[in-house]
């Protein structure tokens, strides 16, 4: 339910219809999954590395997009 709701930019009412559950159930489990993902996000999402790889920097086909 969580991935369908996010992936298709659905509202609670549409998810209720698709999965045949009440709005309370949809909200409860959506929020549980969201909180769980936020707790583990720091393990999987790191800070962005601002350096451009040498392969891209040295190739004129790619570098204009990474200036």
Automatic annotation (TrEMBL):
Residues 1-38 form the DUF8040 domain. This is DUF8040 domain-containing protein. InterPro entries: DUF8040. It comes from Nymphaea colorata.
């Amino acid at each position: 339910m969580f991935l369908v709701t996010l992936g298709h930019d659905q509202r609670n009412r549409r998810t209720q219809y698709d999965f045949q559950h009440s709005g309370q159930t949809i909200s409860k489990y959506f929020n549980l999954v969201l909180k769980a993902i936020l707790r583990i996000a720091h393990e999987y999402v790191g800070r962005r590395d601002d350096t451009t790889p040498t392969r891209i920097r040295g190739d004129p086909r790619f570098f204009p997009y990474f200036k």
